[in-house]
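Aim 2 progress update. The chain analyzed this quarter is reproduced below.
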Amino acid sequence: MDTPATDPMCPCVVRVRRRRRDGPGVWTLELEAHPDAPNGFEAGQFNMVTAFGVGEVPISFSGDPAHPERIVHTIRAVGPVSSALTRLGPGASLAIRGPLGTGWPMGEAPGRDVVLVAGGLGLAPLRPAIYRLLAERARYGHITLLYGTRSPKDILFRRELYAWRKRGDIAVEVTVDHAVEPWHGHVGVVTGLIGPARFDPRRTLALVCGPEIMMRFAAEALAAAGLAHEAIYLSLERNMKCGNGLCGHCQLGGHLICRDGPVLRYDGLREALRVREL
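Predicted structure tokens:
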């Protein structure tokens, strides 16, 4: 008996449509949609992506949820699988299974201020949420994007950041850890942008994605600014292997990140994130 293509353990073979370099070692792949795959995804979800002959890794969606026919993943070459994926050009084949995991709580955002805090490649999983917020802009209060990365050359989606800032209805602030080239923006960690940001902590929803230590400090800074822990959401990426909560590789405290996350509320993560090397 054939396994249905919608089975989360059954990959679909797709081809690369376009490939674009978005930073040092970072490439964005646009893939064709498979006719038998689930239609659509939620901002914050991920696919398990296979480079044939190499392996499989979890990659968050970085495209627009309003266009499910365009499957978009932004990938940094950091290991054998991700490196192999970033080398694939138009027409090359790979496999995906998903969408998997929990998404950003977009249903809680209408009528509230929204603060998005991104570190490094963490801007990619937040990008679908930004598309959603801007497509329905009148439904939300102040929208603020705070983005930090290592250096000016590492800034992702430069044209979009510029276009978003130019709109005038979303505040966009970018900071870098260090700047050896001409740079007229902020220098310092992204948590330093939280204090001056404009939002009402009593009615704000915060979405945070980046390196785990950055997210811990960002969540603490948001809480210190007055946000309730229940209003802060983090997207975690542990060592996922199966994507369905079967293998246990991605366990964090009582959570299996691939099944219960990757997007989880800070009040349920706070104590686990404080444990060194957990």
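Residues 12-100 form a domain with the Elongation Factor Tu (Ef-tu); domain 3 fold (CATH 2.40.30.10). The chain has two domains: 12-100, 106-273. These observations will guide the mutagenesis experiments scheduled for the next reporting period.
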